[in-house]
Write a structure and sequence with these properties.
Mean pLDDT: 88
Structural class: mainly beta
Distance between the termini: 27 Å
Number of strands: 8
Number of helices: 1
Helix content: under 10%
Length: 107
């Protein structure tokens, strides 16, 4: 499994993250490449240790709640303000801190 990994930077050739693809993995940080155009429901669900997710492509299609309905405390998601991704997370996820991706230095 994923128990020993703290951070994962997904490959730049990746275009889709399927439904529940990283479900129950124990990463602290996930960096999604800008090439990703689709993230399936529950893709990052049950990630109890998850603190930070970076989704630079604000136009990616989000299929429902990618965090699987969990009430997250302190999880920060960096993406483009007002984008499709931002709005979908705001509508479907509970207590997630949405952050402007411009706050990050190395994207």
């Amino acid at each position: 499994g994923c128990d020993s990994l703290d951070k994962i930077k997904l490959p730049p050739s990746l275009e889709k993250i399927g439904r529940m693809a990283l479900y129950d993995c124990r990463f602290r940080e996930i960096e999604v490449p800008s090439s990703v155009t689709y993230i399936g429901s529950g893709a990052f669900g049950l990630g109890h240790r998850l603190e930070k997710v970076v989704i630079p492509n604000g136009d990616a299609i989000i299929d429902g709640d990618i965090f699987d309905g969990r009430a997250w405390n302190g999880l920060e998601v960096y993406t483009v303000p007002g984008s499709r991704v931002w709005n979908s997370i705001e509508e479907n996820s509970v207590r997630i801190q949405l952050r402007d991706i411009a706050e990050l230095e190395n994207i």
